[in-house]
Amino acid sequence: MITFPNAKINLGLNITEKRPDGYHNLETVFYPVPIEDALEIHVQNNCQLPAANGQVQKFSLHQAGLEITGNAADNLVVKAYLMLDKVFDLPPVDIHLYKHIPSGAGLGGGSSDAAFMLKLLNKRFELGLTTEKLEEYAAALGADCAFFINNMPTYAEGIGNLFSPITLSLKDYQILLVKPDIFVSTREAFSLIKPHKPEYSLKETIALPVSEWKERLVNDFEASVFPQYPAIGEIKDELYQKGAIYAAMSGSGSSVFGLFAPGTPLPEADFGKESFVFKGKMI
């Protein structure tokens, strides 16, 4: 059984306050975009492999596409499987993950893989988990994982884990997204942020026409990331020069996207051979 986890972008991102626990409260809008990984599972009766600690390992993970660093056991798709396995004693599985969504991009690729893995296991093994229960499991894997269960435009607050549905469609718009070969430390980006009350209400701004977003819809991380990595800010400037109606960095970076009016041909642009570039129509 196969599924195709998609990415997300942040439409606006305001860091509103630092919490006593060291985390930050924020507000943002998650919006799904059609950049997809591929995730497939097979039941394998012979994939129970001895683990290093002598216990039986009930999964094997095969990765392709963009490189993923780290141990297989640390991959969120594996953590999703092991989480449900503890409750349902799942059959051993052979997991195939093809990565097309770049990591460290502010696109939620790992979170999406985890959420789609939960949904895939629920369907394949007829676990009967409700959407609410799937969201609960997803939230335990990461703050934004639960978004990908419903995978609809969502207003998020708290640490990015409190969701409210919103009415927003960018279906006819086109997107040009660029992820340069630059790694931005989320921890460092947060350390340079000065929490504040936003000048404009995010909920009110997102209800305005896209043509009015440029001066109102802000990603607070840009103020700390662009001075450290000017090339990221230059991509945003170039997207506006190429005719984007709205452009912004997603999350804490390093990807930057531009939205173009319906029917507008997406421009040709050279962002360097090491950059990931996606062009397509919004969902």
Largest sheet: 4 strands, mixed
What gyration radius follows from the Cα positions, in whole Å? 19 Å
Number of helical regions: 8
Overall spatial form: globular
Order of helices and strands: EEEEEEEHEHHHEEEHHHHEEE
CATH architecture of the largest domain, please? 2-Layer Sandwich
CATH topological fold name of the largest domain: Ribosomal Protein S5, domain 2
Secondary-structure-based class equals alpha+beta
User: Strand fraction band?
Assistant: 25-35%
Give the total of beta strands: 14
Mean pLDDT: 93
Distance between the termini: 23 Å
**For this entry, what is the oligomeric state of its chains?**
single chain
Secondary structure: helix percent: 25-40%
Number of domains: 2
What are the segments in which pLDDT stays under 50 over at least 5 consecutive residues?
none
How are the strands of the biggest sheet laid out side by side? 1-4-8-7
CATH secondary-structure class of the largest domain: Alpha Beta
Describe the protein's architecture and organization.
- This protein has 283 residues and is an alpha+beta fold.
- The chain has two domains: 1-163, Ribosomal Protein S5, domain 2 (2-Layer Sandwich); 171-280, GHMP kinase, C-terminal domain (Alpha-Beta Plaits, 2-Layer Sandwich), CATH 3.30.70.890.
- The chain is built from eight helices and 14 strands.
- The strands form four sheets. A four-stranded mixed sheet has the order 1-4-8-7.
- The active site is at 8, 144.
- Catalyzes the phosphorylation of the position 2 hydroxy group of 4-diphosphocytidyl-2C-methyl-D-erythritol.
- Belongs to the GHMP kinase family. IspE subfamily.
- It catalyses: 4-CDP-2-C-methyl-D-erythritol + ATP = 4-CDP-2-C-methyl-D-erythritol 2-phosphate + ADP + H(+).
- Residues 75-149 form the GHMP kinase N-terminal domain.
